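FIELD: query
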Amino acid sequence: MTLNIAKGSTSHSAYNLRSTYAETVERHVLAVIVDNEPGVLARVIGLFSSRGYNIESLTVAETDHKGHTSRITIVTSGTPQILDQIEAQLGRIVAVHEVHDLTAEGPAVERELALLKVAGTGEHRVEALRLADIFRAKVMDSTLESFIFEITGSPEKVDAFADLMRPLGLTEMVRTGVAALSRGTRTAV
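FIELD: result
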């Protein structure tokens, strides 16, 4: 802590105390291995909503049919203290087997799938196709008035493609949310 004394002031007031550091909000990707049973996802989401934590992205699917477990991938943001609290509280849920903070554990590969509907004619159509080629987006459907593009990549890549498609007639978009795995031999299972 530093003492902030107003110019010309001779008193030291507690009201002048100011923190010298600001806790930064960080984005983290969590992999949560849970029992594949009814209500588990609701309990995990309930933990976030009851404490006012935000979920930026959420994906869930069964990953071990024999073991009846699913993997929930959650993208959230918070201060380091909040992120530690989230991880600890998730670990207290009975149906949760493991919680891994992929961001804190080291490099990870993140991918997202998105479908984008772009309506347009003439030069807008030509430009949309040119940009799709640059971004390696696939044309999944085409009519005389619209395209549906599929794009896979990092969330930043999907955002950039969507931003470029907006002025060309982006009318609708759906995203899967982030799927992520740790690089190397580390596993979350």
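FIELD: remark
Confidence is low (pLDDT under 50) at residues 1-21.
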